[in-house]
Please model this.
Amino acid sequence: MILVGDWATGNKKAVCGLTTGLVLANLESPIVPHGREVAPVPKSGPSLLSTTLPAGDVTFVFSLANNHIMDYGLPGLEGTMDLLRQKCFPACGAGENFAKARLPVVVQDGGVRLGIIACCEAQFGIARRNYAGVAELGPWVYSAVRDLRKNTDAVIVSVHAAVEDSPWPSPYIRELYHSFIDAGASVVHGHHAHIPQGYEAYGNGVIFYGMGNFAIDPDRWRDYPNGMWSLAAEIDFRSDSVCWRPLTLEIRHQRGSDTIVIEESNGEEQSSHRRYLEACNGPFDNPELFDALWQEVALRVYFHHGAAQMRFSASPQSGRRLQARVGLSILKSAVLNRIEPSRPRQCDYLLWYNMVNCESHRQMLRTALGVLGGEIKDMRSDETRRIADEMLPWSRGVVLK
Model:
């Protein structure tokens, strides 16, 4: 099996250079073919859709548990699942209620029987008892892993959880993924950061914290550092221990073209990506460095946009542009709708909901506020500042010591 990252190609067609094997990916958007009218649902952030699924002889298995698969409501989900069935692409992680969303899929790969569970930290589109959505990450995963392991050779837990644009997971997410391996999973397949994150062997399995963008619309991601390549992994389950080989994949696209090509990185690209992944993986062996780098991430994200989104006061030299846009938006709404400037709108409530509902967002806020308030010891240093400046180029100069 080959593990890859996010599929969200928009209106582009994708030519995939993977020619053999079973491929597990995160379907980051519903599939809405050209000419079909479907309305987006209210939420904070962009609404994504794609018009095509992968073509060719490769069989894909999709995780549907993410914060965009319900962007076009139940019609978008049902249409997507119909198309997946037509293509004979197994999928899990979403359904007409939370019980259906939690159901695994079982597939055969080279004579090995694999069970796959998909879940997502709480954001938008979570399935409830009586309405459709995605499977929310929760304690149910442990019993699902144990039950699935009884009837399969290996279990994969595919999880949509991360602080976006962070090369490292939070300590909370790392400990959580360790616990899935302890419960009997062989592989944790992580995604959501939209850039590659690190990976590590743990216990009897392997954890990939974030695969990055596998096949996406370049018009959205071309200018994002590390947004146009992804981590992939060939997994061999036939031996007693899980064996794997990491790969890096490039998204090739010429401006104006409606086709993207995904292929393995060339030699120079591989060297650059290897250095990046070493910087992601290295802190796993140094707990103090790992915790300090997470503080760097949390504070930079907080000052870059978290404080403004929560309407917290922040440094006048941090998040200034975003705060100005938020303030202008509120003022414009007040003028047009004749409401009090401080009165929250639906989009405000949805944004706050997302910030406090998502575990990674909460971990960012609690870490940043804890460090700033003195409850959490500030472990940052000149070394962590240098590493963070290199690995998070969008955040350079955001945080004052």
